Fold each of these.
Amino acid sequence: MKRLVFESWLLLLYVDRIMRWRRFRALHRIVRETPVKPGIPTRLVPHENLSRAMDCACVLYFKRVLCLQRSSATTILLRRHGWSAEMVIGAQLLPFKSHAWCEVRGAIVNDKPYLYDIYTVLERC
């Protein structure tokens, strides 16, 4: 588990640097183009363990981790471990709020399951 938390923490740092020095378009392209690593389904690390490792890494990160950074890093982490994950960006009109989360096979894995009741999906990558 320590290795997964460390890998998650490094991904948070990587995404943080992209968000700081480049535009959203670059982050979107990186997440969209990150391939799913082929793996044997019985040897995959459970996506719950990967999400838990990312949660721990967020607690240990040196600054507040926002949903876009967390969801981008979680999507990349899951894909590196063989899961076909998608980052989803949604918005609520009144009052205006936006949010990002990660899904595996249409199920939200790093946030509350009722997000579809609050947000309209704008983008999937």
Note: The chain has four helices and four strands.
Amino acid sequence: MTAATVWRIDVPMVVHGRPWTANDRVHWRTRALYTRTIRESVAWVAKSLHIGPQAHITVGLHYQPGDSRRRDAPNLTTSQKPSVDGLRDAGIVPDDTAEFVTELMPVIHPGKNRRALWLEIEATP
């Protein structure tokens, strides 16, 4: 049995150095800009990694906030959705439906000195 392949893609933090969350109330143009920025960035990085088409992937968004304040993981799905769309745009999967993509609940890691937001993409053979 072959082990799963896992890739990591950094996701841009588009709201003044932090991730876009469901709590952000922004104008529709700003929302469109955030969506496009995340989607295009993830697609470009995925293409540069030469991931190639996959039959099915499991995707999880991870956030390391840089401090120890409490946060609500489901709020990060606002950044996760355009990230998954970017993977579809890169041709990794033909569609972002459950047939091709399993999306995990976002994970918030304990605060460190450095902020980071990334996707982990797992493809099983």
Note: The chain has one domain: 5-123.
Amino acid sequence: MATFRVVRTDAEWKRILPPFTYQVLRQAATERPFTSPLNDEHRAGIFRCAGCNWPIYSSKDKFESGTGWPSFVRPLNAQAVGYTHDTSLLMVRTAVHCANCGGHLGHVFDDGPPPTGKRYCMNGVAMKFQPA
């Protein structure tokens, strides 16, 4: 089991997070496509975990995937996120979580653009944007 720098009880997470953000970050729910304002966020800045404010993605690595979720070619750095094997929904996927608090962010797929070929498909409600 992974250990994280930010550790809170379930009751603490419920108290500090809005209900749907809690469901996504702590219970791996998924927001409906095309509902996040971050999908249309194009300013320079950093996307941070909505649970702990950990920096996870740069606006420089964001791209329009057409999927309805904010998408990135890579995390900010190797320490920004962690990965788990996800077999829910009768699929095999790689889930992405915040390396600081363990909050579920989304999934990564191998159908992204250069230079990485990756598509980090994130739930907008799991992040907040800090303009440069």
Note: The chain has a mean pLDDT of 95.
